[in-house]
Amino acid sequence: MPNILIIFSLLTPFIGAFVLTQPWLPEKKQREKWIMGSVLLTSLITLALVIFPPANPLKLFKLTSHLTLAFHVDGLSRIFALLVALLWPLTTLYAFDYMQHEGGERRFFGFFLVAYGIVLGIAFAATMVTLYLFFELLTLATLPLVMHKMDDKARFAGFRYLLYSMIGAALGLMSVIFLSAYSDTDYFIIGGILNQSRVLGMENILQGIFAVSFFGFGVKAALFPGYAWLPIASVAPTPVTALLHAVAVVKAGVFACIRLVYYGFGTEFLIGSFAQDITMIATVITIVFGSVMALRSDHFKRRLAYSTISNLSYIMFGVTLMTEAGLQAASLHMLYHGVIKITLFFCVGAVYAKTGWEYISRLSGLGSKMPITFATFTLASLALMGIPPLPGFWSKFALGKAAVELGTKIGYFGLAAIMLSALLTALYQMSVVLQVYFPTEVQPGDLSQPRTTHRQQKSPRYLMRIARAAQSGLLESKRMNLVLLILSLMILLMGFTDGPIEKWFNTILTMP
Amino acid sequence: MKIFKGRFFQNLIMWVNGDTEHFLPPADTKMMESPKVPSVTQTLRPLPTKDEVFLGSFTGLSIFLVIGLVSILLLTTYNLPLFGDPDNPVVNEVIKRYVEKGVEETGAINVVAGMILDYRAFDTLGEASVLLLAGTSVMMLLLKDIKNTDPEDDQIAAYEMEIEERNRDLILQKITMILLPAIILYGIYVVINGHLSPGGGFSGGAILGAGLILYASAFGTNEVRKIFTMKTFKILTTSALMTYAICKTYVFLLGANGIDTRIPLGTPGAIFSSGLIFVLDVCVGIIVACTMYGFYSIFTTGEI
Amino acid sequence: MLPLHYNIPAISILACLISGIVIPLLPSERAALRLNLTVSGFVAFLSAILLYKVVPNNEYFVYTMGSFPAPWGNELAVGPLEALMAFVFGLVTFLSLAGGVQTLFHDILPGKRNFFFTMLNMLLASLLAMTYTNDLFTSYVFIEISTLAACAIVVARDTPKTIGSTIRYLALSLLGSGLFLIGVVLLYCITGHLLMPHLQMQILRLIATGKYAMPITLIAGLLFVGIAIKSALFPFGTWLPMAHGGATTTSSAILSGLVLKGYIMLLVKIFYRIFTIDLIRSLHVTDVMYVCGLIGMIYGSIEAYREEHIKRMLAHSSMAQIGYIFMGLGLDVNLGIAAAFLQIVVHAFVKPLLFLSAGRLSEIYNHEKSSYRLRGSAHKDWVAGIGFTLGSLSMVGIPLLGGFLAKYYLIEAAMQNPYKLWPALFTLMISAVMNALYYIPGVIAIWTRSELSTANPVEHNIGFTWIAAPVLSIAVVFLGVNGTYVMEIIQRGLALL
Amino acid sequence: MNNLLKTMINDRFMIAAVLLFGFGFMNLLLQKNLIRKIISFNIMESSIFLFLASQGYINGRIAPIIVDGILDADVYINPIPSGLVLTGIVVSVSVTAFFLALTVRLYNIYKTVDFDEIMLLVNKEAE
Lengths: 512, 304, 497, 127
Prior knowledge:
By secondary structure, chain A is mostly helical. In chain A, about 75% of the residues lie in helices and about 0% in strands. Chain C has a domain at about 285-495.
């Protein structure tokens, strides 16, 4: 594969978004075709790159002698790009139906496409400064998506998101600069790029910088002190919450942390240092904290957001193990959790789009009305809890194994936290499933008077659709169902083919 | 937001209209009633309360700052070279050349004139531009336009002018008639003797300007306007400055490139000597005189 | 005979002065405008040639004004850094004028526009003179010219608010130039010279003999404080937001973008060419600069965050950026000074871009200035919208734009001085986050559609849309991508200074 | 002590200049009346000129205007400070004029010359 293809995969979504913002496509159908076309084309190019990675990095230009803007497809990029390229078209398909009742589709899909290009940029970044550039751009591109509704709540969420992300990026910038100052090359190499002779005597400072930047990039991955934006940002439309806050944005944070640990500072330099301890403790805290908060919250999306926080820290825990097994387990969980969590969010979105309900306690008995949605939900919940042979089990297993192999105290603590969190996951996920299929004393919601936002109530078309759906007894739309089915198939498939996947990961991650 | 507009002369007019009416004939009451003078107390905005003003919040700081600065400066003065000591660091080769070769190189008997107009002429060019800038900025602020005048004010001004015209001070006028020629002559003397004796363009120009101001205050600006209008002002000032700048450009550029630019210097001590310095002195004199009078006229009437 | 390009500095200063003098005689303001544009473009063009000639050969030359050499006559001293600054000054003046002329004609009364153009030319002349001069007293004279001209172009708008802010600006400026003058006088007393190389010689001799140690400290302090007041360093910069925020767009752009930088250029020249940078460091002047710069960064950012009036917000942000520059100068490493100059150059392009775009946006929205009321304005003139966005992103520090590179070099410089690294690093981070918090919401606001954004199309502004905004935007991107070239020029220039 | 006194008497112009400077500076900061502020500014500038001019004087020498063709540097005082003072005076006059013009405009608008009051009123002014 010629490496110039990377540029095409990055530019296609931008071009798509540009055309979309122009008044050239007046018809809704045309627009949908155009969007889907751009997304599919990008995914195809990306998949081609993932399967046949180009050998040489693509160098664009040098900012300074230490800062180069360059792209490369290595093992980790391939995993992340695969995840993104698989899930983005599905989300697009899902969003067509979902966004009908939100409005502002042109703007939404414009930024949606741009965000795709930027996430791919993060995936293919070959140097720290490229990563940082796309990291910043990701914040800027997703901010309008978070603030989509432009009401007070959305604006507050957007401001919070901006604040946290900018602090994170600023802290991350430190490592960009320090890495460029203390290394000879700035291309990522597994094992780290620090020049050991120059580091001598500066170890503590550099490890401190590492810890600070880890927390900085970790803000996007909702690591402990910087998690607060994620639950609030769930005011965004569900495709955004699902894709950006369960997959793209948060996984980009994790991805950046992996780059920082394994490809930037290097495990050899960090392992056993105080920086490892601090970061690992933070991940352990986040694992437990996220699960507990998820159990506490009644808001459906927020519960999943807290669950995301907890699960992301599984990955981060794997990252902070700083062993090869840790990296492998982390990337495995990155892939599996991405698929599982997006499925869960889509189920929530389906419920919200059709009924307008946000709280779990109101969902009693909805299972029969939305059979496919909740079947998928149950499957995904089981996978998230870690029931073998579903994928969640394998990744947690790998994580646990890696932790035991490391053999430090905090490692065992982490293992315990994962166990505890698995239990809590069972509690908070199964309570929903039970609520849905076996209604409690609380009356099931009155379908003829859905709880909706002000704007939706005004739309007669929406009310009519609700009424018709209530008559027929089914509340699901075809395209959404299709997406959910594809995703559940993927979950099952991944569960059964875990062996080959792990082997593939092993080969590509150890490849230079 | 210009509800409270008014003029600087309101106080004057109130005094004019007041009880102690000593120079208007009592029969002429019509003129007194025509303009409506707003009372100053009405136009004042309500004073801000104490809380809003940070009155005196910086007083202590300022006093502390000033006392500190002054004591440091006094200490420094103690450490500085002694007053009037011939061995001071300032007495060095720079002065030696100015004094010993000045006449030969610049043709000016007055070493200071030679220094500011030839050796360090770039500074002086800047200085002349400052004058132009000051004139321009004052005109920018005070020349009459729709923003800083209103019809009522114009009425008041016309009224005031009327009073002034009628009550020209005879003593002042007579004295002016005697003094003015002498002042103007003296000013011209100082200007064109700048390279020979103390004085020069700046001082001479100031004297000329003062003469013009005296004339204007004795006979009214309208009288001056017969010979000296806005147009004259602009043309005189800019062309003098222009001459100055072009002469200096010529000298700077050619001099720097090592081409001999020497205008014939003439006999040192004669009036028409010292080359460009004489011309420059005259230019500076014109600029200063015009600017001085310009300030006076704009400040009093808002136009030249 | 000198090489021809040696004449460029003198020619550019004199051209500006002479055109400033001619303008009152011109019949119409259009002619004045054209003359002004021509002169500033001419200066930029000549300076570019000078830059092209000077940089490859590492030339640093002294140009006598007139036929009298060093200690007797006035001199200009020119090197790569000076040429670069002159180029920036000329170019940005040209662009600010071209871009803001429509607002200018709205803000200033017909009879007084020619005065404004005179001021503008004089301001450019004074900036060039401050950059090039090799003579301390000349720099004082031109500081005064720039003070008067700067105040005048603020007050040209002639609203009660601008007059009030100008009087404050003038009072503080006079304080600054008074202190500067005392410094010059004292320096003359102990050395007997006014030209920089000779001053340096004398000062080094005095330092070696240990004489007048205390006056030298005081002089360094006075010169620094005098200039710091004028360049709006933190505790002295309170005059800036009102004056810069209230002026007409062109004035704001030039004042924020250039005038402050002219003083800093002069300060650096004084430090290098009179005191030598080692002496300044041993006198702890750099420490003061460093601390004031840090506080200024935070203070300016906080004030900008609290401000709603869009131009005053930009002015507050200028104060923060001045803090960056002084922090860089105060880092005690040579790279820090170079980084500060890169920041100067970047800010000289970014801030006018922001001011002009904001001015254009408010112009198409009935001259509204509150950032809330500008909602959706970018849809009416997307060039202005993109200009504002680019400028904001550069301020936030997105890679590929100028602001990032300046920040990068500042941190890299800070890394060379372990004692000053951490405060600098954290303050930079805080300031960057604050920048994002007040610029990004503004960007989102102007791009969010509102009722006004679909109203009638607006009249075109050719100067802004086709000249100022594109060139400034390209400059910002160019500095972000190829900033190393500029950095190289700066470092060469500093080495020769 | 004697030495200090001697120096003080010898440097009387400089000391007077510094004291005047302090006086002007303090008034510039503390006076509320704009006209008084301008006057104090002028005092401040004049004190600097006094200082500068006093630096030019050398005991027993005469003004630098060549008399009888004597071209000896030991006869005349230092001409440079005189030239600098001249420049300084012109600058100070110009600035004073501008300052006064601003004051006049502000007085016309607000009917007061109290600086604090003016600043308050200006701050309240709508854009």
